Amino acid sequence: MTNLAHWDRFADIDPQFTKPITGKQYKGTSPNPQYVIRCLTEMFGPVGHGFGWDVVAEDFIPLGDEVLHWCRIKFWHTDRSNTFDAYGQTKALMKTRNGMMMDEDAPKKSLTDAIIKAASQIGIAANIFLGRWDDQKHVAKVEAEYRAEDRKAEADAAQIAIDSLNSAATIEAMAAIWSDLPRNIQADRRVIAAKDQRKNELQPKAAA
């Protein structure tokens, strides 16, 4: 495994799990935090087992009339001895057009910010932070690649379903297999055709 193996794996994430940054003085793209956790899970295993973090410091500090919450985490992966620090911050009290507004979720948002920053240092969504997503042609290419992967995965799942239906020895077994299939696979015309064909093949046996 090369030093860039982790970095390259999710340097470009699925655009479906991103959104434009709004309400800031700058523009950009924000990755979905839960999707980032999914990427980390795929790379290292479940949180608390393959990766995790500890909040080692946090505080509220005044910024003029506003208040900022910040936190520092010690992030680890693979082994708890593999650690590095990351920071996150969120305004807990801020000025708005309608006056001052308090964000009671500021500590949670700061933690999320720190986790995303830590994940980016491993390589997750790295190309967003590198500025490559400012090029819409690059984003369109990434979108096309992920959708192609989706179509292949769905085709593979459909073929597995077809093979399972064809292996059913009774109508009851086939019905049980069918009921366990995801709805999108049940809606696949090839899977429907395989179910109907196998049902016709099994009916004489049921009647015998």
Fill in the keyword field for this structure:
208 residues; alpha+beta; Enolase-like, domain 1; 2 domains; four-stranded antiparallel β-sheet; 6 strands; 49% helix; elongated; Rad52/22 family double-strand break repair protein
Summarize the helices and strands and which ones pair or pack.
Blueprint lengths: L4 H5 L8 E3 L8 E3 L1 H12 L6 E13 L2 E12 L1 E18 L2 E4 L3 H17 L3 H4 L6 H31 L4 H10 L2 H4 L2 H19 L1
Detailed description of the structure:
With 208 residues, this protein is an alpha+beta fold. It has 2 domains: 5-134, 2-Layer Sandwich (Enolase-like, domain 1), CATH 3.30.390; 149-207, no CATH class. Helices cover 49% and strands 25% of the residues. It has helices spanning 5-9, 33-44, 106-122, 126-129, 136-166, 171-180, 183-186, 189-207; strands at residues 18-20, 29-31, 51-63, 66-77, 79-96, 99-102. A hairpin with a 1-residue loop joins strand 4 and strand 5. The N and C termini lie far apart (59 Å). It comes from Paracoccus alcaliphilus. This is Rad52/22 family double-strand break repair protein.
A few lines on this structure:
The protein has 208 residues and is of the alpha+beta class.
